[in-house]
Amino acid sequence: MHISIADDLKKQFHAACALRGLKMSQVVAGLIEQWLKANNAPASAGESMTTDKATK
């Protein structure tokens, strides 16, 4: 997935993730999963979307 965001927003996000020892992809996957749950979106094949694929 590729997204366009302001450079300063990306830098802030990168720094916040780094301070917590997280990969940006881990955080984004978790946020997408939360959004899908909050918006009653069906899960894909009953699996969590924050599997190893999202964290590598």
What's the β-strand tally?
A: 0
Helix- and strand-based class? mainly alpha
What is the helix content? 55-70%
The rounded Rg comes to 13 Å
Distance between the termini: 13 Å
What is the chain-wise order of helices and strands? HHH
Indicate the mean pLDDT.
85
User: How many individual helices?
Assistant: 3
Q: What is the count of structural domains? A: 1
For the largest beta-sheet, the strand count, sense and barrel status come to:
none
Shape by Cα distribution: globular
How much strand content do the residues show? under 5%
Q: Are there runs of 5+ residues with pLDDT below 50, and where?
A: 52-56
Question: How does this model look, in words?
Answer:
With 56 residues, this protein is mainly alpha-helical. It has one domain (7-55). It is 57% helix and 0% strand. It is built from three helices and no strands. The two termini are 13 Å apart. The relative contact order is 0.13. The model is unreliable at 52-56 (pLDDT under 50).
SSE map:
Elements: H1 7-19, H2 24-38, H3 52-55
Condensed summary:
By secondary structure, this protein is mostly helical. The chain has 3 helices and no strands. The protein has helices at residues 7-19, 24-38, 52-55.
